Amino acid sequence: MGLNYAMDISISAINAERLHMELISSNIANINTTRTLAGGPYRRKVAAFGERPLSFAEELAYAELRQKSGGVEVSEVIEDRSPFQKVYNPGHPDADQDGFVNMPNVNLSNEMVDLVYSQKLYEANITAFNATKKMMQDTLQIQ
Asked: φ, ψ for residue 85 (rounded to 5)?
């Protein structure tokens, strides 16, 4: 595998983790949203990661040179179907006849743990990218 392929893999992971962090930020921002355009409370969004499909040119290079790029992408954004949290607040405009309000299924503790984990993966992939870039620069210095 060439160094260019290693850089492509790191870039795909950086982009995937960036989107994952954006979803987590959206979940945290909507932690108290009881009305959405779709109706009802906000539903937590989760990133589903998958292998990045190869382009035709990459498949051809793999067939000729036995080099495969690989990588990762967010293949789908899924709404978490776990039940909403019920909170007793009879004064809330979205309260039902018993005084309970359906709150989003977002747990701040879980979101913060996911955010820290995603941030560490993001940083690790930047480190791998920079190490690969340094190897490429060092290769050019060989005389």
From this structure: -85, 135
